[in-house]
């Protein structure tokens, strides 16, 4: 997989950079991102299955808010999402050779999490981009990968963006990716990833944290329904039963 990802990044990323240098613009970069992600899934022996695609409406802007437990969440969404999209992610990705420059020319949006004002400007840029292009942005609700596979507290950025723009959120729950490549290892175990697109949540009337809490309930319900939450190692052990 490392072999194919290296050459896939060099070929697709390098191609995107060259195209940007000669002035190419438009959705071709989304198609290139999709091709790169499909190489990753193919090289790992894994695949992704979509559920609730009827909730993803072409030509309508929305904010796709997903959980994040593995690099394969990114590959599954990027490879299979059937509409044009741009990811919003941490600025550190720009430091990766070839990939970082290709990320920028493809129109994906970086956020400097250490600078609140810069992060706010990046999110507003995402909102303007969605309105102008009728496009989709993908934001991971927790802001980083969960090391345990369980939901972390949600960051507010995606929800503030939704409230400011009036653009609905499509909660997107990814299951099956955690065991493909666990944190802190490069061991890959092929599996099938399931991506659930839930009905859009309209931010109208949901002030403060109410929108975030409603969306989080959708995640918890789907994860419990699919029995996709790993055991919580931090939970206290049950007390021993008293003897007669």
Sum this structure up briefly.
This protein is α/β, with parallel strands linked by helices and 244 residues long.
Can you put this structure into words, describing what you see?
By secondary structure, the chain is an alpha/beta fold. 40% of the residues lie in helices and 15% in strands. The chain has helices at residues 2-21, 28-44, 71-80, 99-105, 116-133, 157-165, 210-225; strands at 47-51, 62-66, 85-90, 109-111, 136-140, 169-175, 192-197. It has a 7-stranded mixed beta sheet with strand order 1-7-6-2-5-3-4, sandwiched between helices. Helix 4 (99-105) links the parallel strand 3 and strand 4 (109-111). The longest helix is centred in the N-terminal third of the chain and has 20 residues, at 2-21. It is globular and about 45 Å long. The protein starts with a helix and ends in a 19-residue tail after the last helix.
> Could you give a short account of the major beta sheet?
7 strands, mixed
Radius of gyration: 19 Å
**Average predicted local confidence, pLDDT:** 84
Question: What's the CATH H-level homologous superfamily?
Answer: Glycerol-3-phosphate (1)-acyltransferase
Strand order of the largest sheet: 1-7-6-2-5-3-4
Question: Helix share of residues?
Answer: 25-40%
Structural class: alpha/beta
> In angstroms, what separates the terminal alpha carbons?
58 Å
How large is the share of residues in beta strands?
A: 15-25%
Main CATH class: Alpha Beta
Oligomer: single chain
CATH architecture: 3-Layer(aba) Sandwich
Number of helices: 7
Principal-axes geometry comes out as: globular
């Amino acid at each position: 997989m490392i072999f194919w990802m290296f050459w896939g990044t060099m070929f697709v990323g390098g191609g995107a950079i060259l195209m940007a240098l000669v002035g190419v613009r438009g959705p071709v970069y989304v198609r290139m991102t999709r091709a790169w992600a499909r190489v990753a899934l193919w090289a790992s022996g894994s695949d992704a299955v979509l559920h609730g695609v009827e909730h993803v409406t072409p030509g309508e802007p929305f904010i796709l808010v997903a959980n994040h437990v593995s690099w394969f969440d990114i590959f599954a969404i990027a490879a299979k999402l059937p509409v044009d999209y741009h990811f919003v992610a941490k600025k550190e990705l720009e430091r990766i050779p070839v990939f970082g420059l290709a990320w920028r020319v493809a129109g994906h949006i970086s956020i400097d999490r250490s600078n609140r004002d810069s992060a706010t400007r990046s999110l507003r840029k995402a909102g303007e981009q969605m309105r102008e292009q009728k496009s989709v942005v993908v934001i991971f609700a927790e802001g980083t990968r969960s090391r345990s596979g369980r939901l972390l507290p949600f960051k507010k950025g995606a929800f503030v963006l939704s409230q400011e723009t009036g653009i609905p959120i499509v909660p997107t729950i990814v299951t099956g990716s955690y065991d493909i490549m666990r944190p802190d290892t490069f061991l890959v175990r092929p599996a099938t990833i399931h991506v659930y697109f839930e009905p859009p949540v309209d931010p109208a009337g949901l002030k403060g944290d109410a929108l975030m809490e409603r969306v989080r309930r959708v995640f918890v319900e789907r994860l419990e329904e699919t029995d996709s939450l790993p055991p919580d190692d931090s939970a206290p052990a049950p007390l021993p039963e008293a003897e007669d």
